[in-house]
Amino acid sequence: MNEPERSQDQPEAMSRRQFIGWGAATAAGIAIAPGVTLFDLAHGRPAEQAATNKVRWGMLIDTNQCTAGCNDCVTACNTENHLSGGLKETDSQWIRKIELKDLRSSKAHSLPMMCQHCEHPPCVDVCPTGASFKRADGIVLVDRHICIGCRYCMMACPYKARSFVHEDVTGQNPDVPRGKGCVESCTLCVHRIDRDQKPACVEACSTAGRNAMIFGDLNDPQSEISKRVATYATTQVRADLGLNVAVRYQGI
Q1: CB under 8 Å, gap of 24 or more: what pairs does 142-146 form?
Q2: Per the CB 3.0–4.6 Å rule, which of 78, 115, 210, 213 could disulfide with 185?
Q3: Please, which residues have CB within 8 angstroms of residue 11's CB and are 6 or more apart in sequence?
Q4: Which domain holds residue 114?
């Protein structure tokens, strides 16, 4: 195994964070069956189809097509990931609808808000164990095997997109492992993406005929999402932070 990279000014030492992150990643790689490791399972993709940086998954949400009072995307997310739907204040909520109003024009917008899957995610930067990580294809996830529930990532996220699991979880979707004491957030339905399916929220919006949500590869100039982003003005929420998010909004 290669040694963790050392900084030039500390050739024989590593920082506490480097040590914890390296040790946790090593432990998560313990083999549990031939060719299968906890690391593979935590990352939720088939070993024979590794994520690649040739792809960057993203979503475009047209707020002109997203109507107030419609919660199809939220319901689909809750159903797919076996979430309670925010029945209690402490319940996890991976996607929520927010209402915006332009005070100058009085124009109102209703839009879904979830993890924005930043290119430079603050949640990853502050995680002391490496549990918060970004896949090669840009999807930001939490490895529940090494999350210690410190909630630093929740404080760092400017989109309030992460939730802490306060209670025991029952009736889980086997494809979406959850656990008490861990932090979680929208995964873009990574288990569906790895099967060449769209996220549940996008599929529900399309089925309802609204087509307010477009999912695809931002790196592919021929994809529908790339063509739309190139043709129409789109907005990154809190673009001033320079995070280069993968979720874009049209109409705000």
Answers
A1: 142/182, 142/183, 142/184, 142/185, 143/28, 143/39, 143/42, 143/43, 144/42, 144/177, 144/178, 144/179, 144/182, 144/184, 145/28, 145/38, 145/42, 146/24, 146/25, 146/27, 146/28, 146/42
A2: 115
A3: none
A4: 54-250
Number of domains observed in the structure of the chain: 1
> What pLDDT sits at residue 47?
54
Asked if residue 6 is part of any domain, the answer here is: no
Distance of CA 133 to the CA centre of its chain: 10
Within a domain: residue 61?
A: yes
Q: What is the dihedral of CA 20, 167, 140, 68, to 10 degrees?
A: -160
pTM higher than the cut 0.85: no
**pLDDT, block means (10 residues), the chain with 252 residues:** 40 43 44 38 54 94 91 95 80 91 82 96 98 97 96 97 92 91 96 96 93 96 96 96 97 88
Residue 22 covered by a domain: no
